[in-house]
Amino acid sequence: MALLIRDLDFRYGATPVLQGLGTEALPRGELAALVGPNGSGKSTLFRCAAGLLRPERGTVALDGHDLSQLSQRERARKVFYLAQDTGARVALSVFDIILLARKSLHRGYALAASPEDTRAVEAVIEELGLAPFASRDIATLSGGQRQLAAIGQALVREPDVLLLDEPTSALDVRRQLDVMATIREATRRRDIVTVVAIHDLSLAARFADRVLVMNSGRIAQAGAPADVLAHPAVSETYAVGVHLERSARGTLLVEPYIQV
Fold first, then answer.
1. Partners of 215 in the β-ladder
2. For residue 139, what is the DSSP state?
3. 257 Cβ contact list (under 8 Å, min separation 6)
4. What distance in Å separates the CA atoms of residue 223 and residue 213, rounded to the nearest whole number?
5. C-alpha angle with apex 193: 52 to 42, nearest 5 degrees?
6. Helix (H) or strand (E) holding 1
């Protein structure tokens, strides 16, 4: 039971972005980190997987079923894509925007929230440490707090596939660790497929079950973090050297350096 992407081609105008991109099976219950330089096609891959862009060729299948055969609404129930831009555009509280995300897939915006919906929202708010801000207008929060609320919108919908584009980019170090741990735990507890696009290789090494290295519209290398991050494909992709070592606590540490 897994997400499998095969032979995706996509271009913007005459510019190819994805070129025969394929992944190994990404199992439920595992967190995959998608790494690669800016412009390598990570966000485009997510949009194709979520059905927001239509590839010229290739398939995205979940548990053996081609997602392109579903309606957009059915696909949205299964795949949630959280873009990097989480700017506030509505004058609602944190609780309300997470509740709306819950209601949008289950009962519609106009109907009153059920006790089950309310409990689900409260649980996600507690999970992400958003309780002190639950009644605050989303527009009054910091960028990091808004990003946490956006992750709450994703988790409360209980998707089968969660695609997160740089979910820790606006967070301080403590929140980065907290959020990545929460995402990993939610992935395992809910038995879903989660793919996180992330620039921080140390966070990828620490929290991911597998790492996918993307370069020039293709997956250049994939597998266990220790194996992949030690592979020459990573140095070639980023044009830097990569030194790996284990901390005294057993955490895999990644140190990029400029080769001379």
1. 218
2. G
3. 240, 241, 242, 243
4. 9
5. 45
6. none
CB 160 within 8 A of CB 78: yes
Q: Is 166 left (phi over 0), alpha (psi -120 to 50) or beta?
A: left
Q: What gap in Å lies between CA 197 and CA 29, rounded to an integer?
A: 17
- Does position 249 have pLDDT exceeding 80, yes or no? yes
Strands 161-165 and 31-35: unpaired
Separation of alpha carbons 127 and 104, rounded Å? 21
| Cα separation, 198 vs 201, whole angstroms | 7
204 within 8 A of 225, measured Cβ to Cβ? yes
What does residue 63 show for φ and ψ, rounded to 5 degrees? 55, 35
Alpha-carbon gap, residue 60 to 58, rounded angstroms: 7
Rounded to an integer, the average pLDDT of 63-83 is 92
Between the alpha carbon of residue 46 and those of residues 1, 56, 72, 116, 137, the distances in Å are 19, 15, 15, 30, 29
Please tell me which residue, 239 or 121, carries the higher pLDDT value: 121
Is the pTM of the predicted complex or chain greater than 0.85? yes
Helix, strand or coil, per DSSP, at residue 144: helix
Place of tokens 């002190």: 132
Q: CB of 219 within 8 A of CB of 234?
A: no
Structure tokens at 30: 């595992």
CB atoms within 10 A of CB 182: 19
Nearest alpha carbon to residue 80 among 10, 183, 182? 183
Amino acid at 51: G
